[in-house]
Amino acid sequence: MAIKGADIIKIGETLVKEYGDKWTEKPEQEQLAFFREYGLKIELKKLKKDLEQFRVKFDHWFSETSLYKENKIEPTIDILRDKGYIYEQDGATWFRSTEFGDDKDRVLVKQDNSYTYLSPDIAYHKNKLARGFDKLINIWGGADHHGYIPRMRAAIQALGYDADTLEVEIIQMVNLFENGEKVKMSKRTGKAVTLRELMEEVGIDAMRYFFVMRSADSHLDFDMDLAKSESNDNPVYYVQYAHARICTMLKQAKEKGIEYSPSNGQLLQSDKAEELLKKLGGEFTQVVADAAVNRTPHRMTQYIFELAAHLHSFYNAEKVINEEDMEATKLVLP
Asked: How far apart are CA 35 and CA 47, in angstroms?
C-alpha cells in the first residue's frame, strides 16, 4: 500500500537514515508497534513546538495509551462495580448511568471484550481526580458532543464526586475563508490547514485575537484576508494602531520635555476625554474579573476594541499635545 502523506514519507526517510533496513525483517506486529511509537514522538514534538510558538503552554501532557499500559481502566470499572453501578447483559458490561440522569445505560465493555470510548474516559477522569484536582474542565469540539456530557457527569457522580466537579465547554468549528471562499484544504498539503500554516499565513497576533474574539460556543468564520489587511476593518490592526498612537503621543511629549503623570487627567474636560477615562478606569477591573471567573476571554477582546475606538475618537477630536499652551497638554494615557 502506497502512503502519500508528506509527513509519513518524511518520517519514513528519517527512519531509513537512522535504522537502515533493520526493521525490514522484524515481525509485522513488532514493526507496527515501533513505527507507531516512533511517529507519535515526532508528531507530538512538532505539536508542542507549534503550540509554544502560538504562546499556548500545557503544564502536563497525558497519553491515553498509558491507561492501558498501566492497567488503569479495569480497576476503575471495578470501583463502579463495587458501588453497584455495573451489570452484565447480552455479553457486555453496562454502566447504570441512568441512575444519575442519563437517558440510557451505557456499555463499557463490548461483547468482544474491547472497551468503548467511555471506559478510558472514566479512567482518565478518575486518574486526574486522584492527582488532586478538585475541578475538571473539559474542552470538547463540536456540538455533536453535547450528548456525551450526561454520561460523563454520571460517571463522575458514580465515582463519588459532585456533578459540578466536571464542567464541559463545547467549542464550535472554525471556518477559514480566503478571497470570499471557504478554504477546505491546505494549498501545501491538500489536507486540513494546520496551526503552523495559519500562523505563517496571517501571523500569531491576528490568529490569537480572531480565535478569542467570539465566545467559544459560537461559530467563527475566520477571514484570512481581513486578518492580514492593514485597515480599520481589521480589528487587530485597529487595536494595534491605537497602541501605536499612544506610543507616539508619549514619545512626542517626552521629546518636548513633558513627562507622563496621572495628575494631568484633571486638565481633561471634553466629552471624548471623559468617555475614554470612564472606559479605561471604570470598566477595566470588572471586565477582567468577569472574563476570568466566567471563562469568557472574548469579553477582553470586545473591551479592548471598544477602548481603542474611544482612544481614536479622543485623538481625532482633541489636540493632545498643545505646544502653544503646554500647561493644557492633555497627555493622560500610559
From this structure: 18
